[in-house]
């Protein structure tokens, strides 16, 4: 039955082929499309009902017509050959090498759609991951097994931040085997060259696997890349006992591809034209992060997305925020002031932060210090807004101190550039910045921590 060639393509709509009078096909089944001139292309079954199969083409549909195409259903899903030889390599969105290296041959071939993790088997994330970025490590801590997205906008420094995190990320114990899977979705050739140069020049490529899908590639290819990247990470994590950090950028391009497929299928659109099932689809990607009880490996995920029009209520960031455990939000205002990384800590959140900090993980003063920095920065921004209305000379002396703290916080704590800071350096810097305020304003930290870590003289 699987050797049958169907010549019953009835319609081609965008990236989709509609094949009639087909028996026994399966969802996600891989399809070969063979043209009369011998050219072969691949596709995947998106839907099958009443003898009609809707096939999504990988790549371009140029040259395919209803009269020159034969369709063969293979009976299997997309399976990726995986090996630890993939470390240090660069692949396209289908897992094919583009670094002039050999193809990956392995007896281990995994379904790229993965398998759902049994909730009972999930281990609660608890191990601190140091990114070397103060605004993340100190105030929005990343925990091993967490999914923590970065919400950005067009023209902001998310690519630079992604490369820096990939270069610097590590665990404090230093005994774990740590690796990075980097998946770029719909990026320009310039961005691709930037990422490759960053990984190669920093020496981090040897412990990384890179998958690249360019903006010039067919948009349908973007549906496959995150699943291939996560399949690779799952193999390295659960078979090779590595702790993997998966960085996916830009998930907005992925969602645009979903919208294109939905439109070609004439589905009733949801918000902003995105398909109504986008929440479910995104969850099949994000929920592949985590730790499994009894396994030494783990998958931590940082998806990056650009918010269309800087609108955080857009369906892409909105649905992502529901599924993931917090967000790191980049600020256009800070970016205009040449502050990098332009993280707006007041709009950022890590819901698992408390599980990865404290005396057993970072330092005993971490939670209280982060709370104090949040509160002091918020008061400083309020004082800044007030000074713009009534003038700085009308502020109280304490308000002026908070105003100075906010300036120092942005210029010294947030604006760290390409410098890597240890968690110890980050915490100490936080105490240094707070020393501009009166000690009796320290209401969020434990009193025992003030003389131990604080920078005040004689309690003033």
From TrEMBL:
One of its GO terms (cellular component) is plasma membrane. It comes from the Archaea. Keywords: ATP synthesis, Cell membrane, Hydrogen ion transport, Ion transport, Membrane, Transport. GO terms for molecular function: ATP binding; proton-transporting ATP synthase activity, rotational mechanism. It is a peripheral membrane protein. Residues 356-453 form the ATP synthase A/B type C-terminal domain. GO terms for biological process: proton motive force-driven plasma membrane ATP synthesis. It is found in: Cell membrane. Residues 9-75 form the ATPase F1/V1/A1 complex alpha/beta subunit N-terminal domain. Belongs to the ATPase alpha/beta chains family. PANTHER family: V-TYPE PROTON ATPASE SUBUNIT B. Component of the A-type ATP synthase that produces ATP from ADP in the presence of a proton gradient across the membrane. The B chain is a regulatory subunit. This is A-type ATP synthase subunit B. It comes from Picrophilus torridus (strain ATCC 700027 / DSM 9790 / JCM 10055 / NBRC 100828 / KAW 2/3).
